[in-house]
Amino acid sequence: MRTTFVNTLIELAKNDDKIFLITPDMGYSVLEEFRDKYPNQFLNTGIAEQNTIGVAAGLALSGHIVYVYDIIPFVTMRCYEQIRLDLAYNNANVKLVGIGAGLTYGSLGPSHHAIEDISIMRSIPNMQVLCPGDPIEVEELVKRSYETYGPMYIRLGKNGEPNIHKKGTRIEIGKSVDVKIGNDFALFTTSNTLELAKNWVDEWEKEGVSVYLISMPTLKKFDQEKVEEVISKNMPIMTLEEHSIIGGLGSIIAEIIADSGKAVKYKKIAINDEFSHHVGSHKYQREMFNLKIKPKIDFIKN
Amino acid sequence: MLDITKRVRTHILDMTHYSKSSHIGSALSIVEILITLYFKVLNTDPKNPQKSDRDKFILSKAHGSVALYAVLAEKGFFPLSYLKKYYIDGGILPGHLDRLSVPGIEISAGSLGHGFSISIGMAISNKKTGNKGRIFVLIGDGECNEGSVWEGVMLAAHLKLDNVIAIVDYNKIQSFGKTNEVINQEPILDRWRSFGWDVKEVDGHNFDQLFEALTSTHEKPRVIIAHTIKGKGVSFMEDKLEWHYKSPNDDEYKEAIDEIEREN
Known about the structure:
The complex is a heterodimer. By secondary structure, chain A is of the alpha/beta class.
């Protein structure tokens, strides 16, 4: 995803010298091409995230379209008040690009994991939250982020995620994408669990269970109508995300179900409210947090 | 300058009195700095507040907002009548800064250590685009406790941003104690110098010294350490921590106004 991000930005910057990429000293093997092609639109602000966000705001309030690239905890939590005030309150045109969604940085540990980011970012006024799930969604949403004024958080995985959507699929801010039509229940997913969700749905299909798979590439703005449409069909709903059970996709959908006044069967798959003390790869971390084997679907039965 | 100084101090007293708001001491200490900037130094146009080559002023210590409102109104950025709409229900001017409130407010602010970094970003933009506008940023001495200030100090020096002029309102009192008793800032001149800044030291209530320091040439980012008196101009408020919080009651208000009117 990060390669797709930077390649898309390099393409956009060809025709727009207002694009500015800054990083608090991150981006080895990723940002070099942008840096070398557009040295006047690139700045390494040093390992100083709070100042970096303020500098990004100053650049944006002077007319630039600013992208800030870093590992998720450092570009969201370390400088949260700067994001809230300098970017969101000032409504500055800055896009925070975070890499390492969820447990991506497995063995590096909880300092580098990102399981609270969606929750804290989506609660800030003016802030939009973009969570692409495959390289197609990344390319499309980076383009949309460039076309759309305002502060945004773009949550990326790392590298090597496969395409789930067909090339040419149009992704819009605030719109869901139907990945596979099904009848027995609906599975909503976002960000870096799109591939996992697709694998599960394919397995269920072999077992004779027809699942409606919906990708939610943006969590704010959010496609509330899609959830309401599923509720109106009285279809059971499952959510899957590599984020805390508190405040992410599952919470958003639970709120919509509650607000609808209708009873619909619901199951949330997410990371329990705890830090990882497991040592191991991304794959291993997922296993430890029950995000590897597809869950039982008893909840859809009466 | 005496007339305008008296008028601005009177506005500050009026506003904090009728609204029963705090931070009067922090506003009174920066009056001469703001007047020098807006009436002698800054390239700004109240009729065209967004003109692209303007000099920008950032009040990073945004709790001194009443002083900025008073000076902007006197300069003609918005009607003087707006000064009656500070802090109160249905008001126009908030306690801290909202850039959507009135023309002339460059950034929304209120938390310390933020405006300084934003000003560095604006200075980088002007350098990159060849914009001749300069960036003036006023920070408090207590604000220098914030780590983000020193992150910005390092970056500005590294990038040799000679279009930045920072002013430290060195009134020597912060939120809950004497500045240098909370966290010692001395030797403050050497600190900034050693980080790569061009350092000037002035009496922050002396117009001539301020003008010289704000306008003379420099090759590095400049900082002006402005020695000021918290609560300046009202003797019973001067150098008193309590006037970071209190607002003048009716008797105190009258006494303060009398003293300002007597000054010459």
